[in-house]
Write a structure and sequence with these properties.
By secondary structure, the protein is an alpha+beta fold. It is 29% helix and 25% strand. It has 2 domains: 2-73, Serine Threonine Protein Phosphatase 5, Tetratricopeptide repeat (Alpha Horseshoe); 78-248, no CATH class.
Length: 251
């Protein structure tokens, strides 16, 4: 009986933590990572049928979310504003768009493909080194196929108030900026998700930034600032992690 009890404890220590990690990943929108954890938990769960059923249900939920996100990326034809075709949602995990325009997606350091979550004060294993390079190279571009990180000049086109109307609005309790082409009526919404500070990766919500692919010197890069009382372009350290809104390739 003692051996059986020990085996049960070992079994719980195997699938329990993996299941919990899967739940954490799912809540953060990392559905592929969550699915991997649930599958690992299933492998070590010589457990009651109800536990296996629960894990399989979570795997199906992950598959559904992965399918929806992939469909969004494939079906997003973008919105043309002042001659530039913009994606309608932020980048979530690398190669994937967020499900809805108001979803924050994930944060990225300049010219790096690693995604950082947009919730929680701190993150583990923050990379405090300065990204190098004189452009955001394709291998590090988190945008889905057919899309890329915008240039500084494309942000300038978005900020042309003669052709584009910009307003601070709220969509489903999410604040941000809506940009509308005055001729066509096409629009995009950029949620104000905040950013992660360069020093320790802590989450700052007072300001929000969207990266461009354009460097500014050896340690800075250009961005679009999105806050309630103003919007404009600027530059800052490449180390901080900001939102990414893609533009279509070939323009």
């Amino acid at each position: 009986m003692i051996l059986c009890a020990s085996a049960a404890i070992a079994q719980m220590s195997c699938y329990g933590p993996r299941r919990n990690k899967g739940m954490e990943a799912y809540k953060k929108g990392n559905y592929k990572g969550a699915k991997e954890y649930f599958m690992l938990a299933l492998q070590c769960a010589e457990s009651p049928a109800n536990v296996k059923t629960e894990l399989n249900n979570w795997i199906r939920k992950c598959d559904n979310r992965i399918t929806v996100i992939a469909a969004n990326a494939a079906s997003d034809k973008g919105s043309v504003i002042n001659g530039v075709c913009w994606a309608t949602s932020n980048v979530a995990s690398p190669g994937e768009f967020a499900e809805k325009p108001e979803d924050p997606g994930m944060f990225y350091q300049w010219n790096r493909r690693k995604a950082w979550i947009t919730t929680g004060d701190r993150v583990p294993n923050w990379n405090g080194s300065t990204p190098d390079g004189n452009k955001w190279v394709r291998a590090n571009d988190p945008c889905p196929a057919g899309w890329r990180v915008p240039t500084y000049e494309e942000f300038v086109e978005l900020l042309d108030d003669e052709k584009v109307k910009c307003e601070w609005i709220t969509i489903n309790k999410v604040e941000g900026r809506r940009f509308t082409d005055k001729t066509s009526g096409n629009s995009i919404f950029l949620p104000a998700a905040g950013y992660r500070n360069y020093g320790d990766g802590s989450l700052w919500k007072s300001d929000s930034f969207y990266w461009s692919s354009t460097p500014n010197g050896s340690g800075d890069a250009c961005y679009l600032g999105v806050i309630s009382d103003m919007v404009g372009s600027g530059s800052g350290t490449r180390i901080k992690a900001c939102s990414v809104r893609c533009v279509a390739e070939g323009q």
